[in-house]
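Chain A, query sequence.
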Amino acid sequence: MQTFIESLKKRKMLLEWAISVAKTNLRNLPEGHLEIAGSKSWTSLYLVSPETSGRRKYIPKKDIALAKALASRTYLEHFLRRATRDLKLLNSYLDFVSSRPPEDLYSEMSPARQALVRPLLVTDDELARTWEAAEYTRGMSFPEKKIYPTKKGDLVRSKSEVFFADMYLEMGIPYRYEQELRFPDGEVLDPDFTLWDKKRRQEMYHEHCGKMDDPVYRKRFHEKIDIYRRNGIYTGKNLILTFEGDGTTLNMLEMRNMISEIFL
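Chain A, predicted structure.
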């Protein structure tokens, strides 16, 4: 809900800016309006204004700037009517929903009462907490390689995964480490991180590819990407890929900025 309200506020700011520009531009345009007559093969332009006593005055081609100005006036006048109407409705709606949206009702209840009801609508934060607290099946591949502890208490396979796990925790992005992911075609993968995107209310997946210089590892990586893609998971939509290899290191500041841009 909060994301929706923020999008409405951005729309409000855009409308306010456009209305201001339209009013300024209108002050510099001539009075009257443009009439167009003609067919597919010819067009005639006419000025109708108080100065012409409401009668049409032909606009020659050399005065095309006048025709453009009159067309702009008509557009801006219609635009102002619609934009002003939309802004009025938007302000009324924002005043209404910003007071006490129905999503807040569940969060305002005591834990004891929350345990007795099933909410119809919840806030983004409440939904994220529910997702994070839910049980999930962890992947069982190579458990002996999970030797690096994170601040959340998980054991992961590399120092880079420690960095990502601790970064997600610090930034308030709910995550699950190596949650088993079963697809309708029978394939099973364990994404390094399954993330909860509060803004879009959906799961996203992060694969950190730490040994791209290893041919066997690289081949398996490409196979995994094919599986993801066949099941509607790909970069630009809901999959984050980061890479390391021999002689390369992660730029931690750039990683943080990227994640912040995506989620926050």
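The chain is about 45% helix and 15% strand. The two ends are 15 Å apart (CA to CA).
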